[in-house]
Amino acid sequence: MTHPLPYADSGAPQRFSVVVVGAGPAGLTVGTILRAASVDCLVLETETREFIEQRPRAGVIEEWAVRGLEKRGLARNLLDRAELHTACEFRFDGERYRFPYGDLTDSHHFVYPQPLLVTDLVREYADVRGGAIRFGVRDVRLHDVDSDRPSVSYTCPETDQRQVVHCDFVAGCDGARGVSRAALPPERVRIARHDYGIGWLALLAEAPPSTDCVLFGCHERGFAGQMPRSPEVTRYYLQCPPGDDVENWPHERVWSELRERLGAAGVPPLTEGRLTEKRVLDMHDYVVEPMVHGRLFLAGDAAHLVAPIAAKGMNLALHDAFLLGDALVARLTTGDGSGLDGYAQACLRRVWDYQEFSQWLSEVYHGTAAGDPFRAGTALARLRRLFTSPTAAAAFAEQYLGTAARY
């Protein structure tokens, strides 16, 4: 909800054309696009710079998203340092099946951990392009976003005083629990949500990947995945009950389950190492509509969440940011409001496409462990079809790489 303006005990009001709430990939990309066009903006972030540059998150970036960053001068380090992946591997029925999607599409994935991308974007926005950013702010509130004179207020961490920032537009990029989504009128919001009824134990291991690509283990004991992050660090996932306690997963049990679920004939043993992170993620999706209310435009997880089943979340955030950044520039520099008018519709086309694929892929990953012989049989049929039908393989590759709905 919006709040009355806190003029009492506030510092002198400031003005920026755009206030961006949240310094994740979406918010920083929007801000950097605006700065490149000489549009003044302010980014507000509740965490410290050090925190957002180290927060572990996703690492798979689709090629179209990288080209979008490159077009805007934001991919130099990424292109120099990212690993390129052109294949993935499924393991089921005790066998291994390599899926060379690069050969089918002439496209590939980039593996570049989100903390590195955020570090690059913060440096480009704040240090190179001189963008205004406030870290560690508290009690951020949005005001009058349904008018032509919106504003944002916050408590300054240094002075403990309220600051008021007037603006033309607000970009809400502060995630699922941020204030931007909460500012939408409840009676006008529809949240479409899907719960998978499963959990994933998310792990970071100080160990090199055991193969040169992503692994998907579809096993009767539950799904397991390996996602390389760097030559020294590997992300693993293990299906578990939703809400499970990480204390139920000591070191030896984790590696025992990974060995079992990712095992296949003729494969070398997993390279084990110290586990530096253990978190349980409850698998769910949501889509918030509308993504726009007055002068407030939501982007990224503030507007939609896709479970990490298909590694689509950061890519959707970047898609939103490209559209929103370009549309704000057009409106503020030339008066062309067509991009803002069509923003939500253009975002949601890709959002729903990715949601559908994530739901389909979940059944492939988890059907064999459902305890239902029918679901297990259909999941295995889908897996076998990927390796026996060129048409099915091409369709999967297109969706897996995000090339079906090009930006």
From TrEMBL:
Residues of the FAD-binding domain: 16-357
InterPro entries, per the entry: FAD-bd, FAD/NAD-bd_sf, RIFMO-like
Keywords per UniProt: FAD, Flavoprotein
Key word Cell inner membrane present: no
Signal peptide location: none
Name of a matching Pfam family: FAD_binding_3
Name of the protein in its database record: 4-hydroxybenzoate 3-monooxygenase
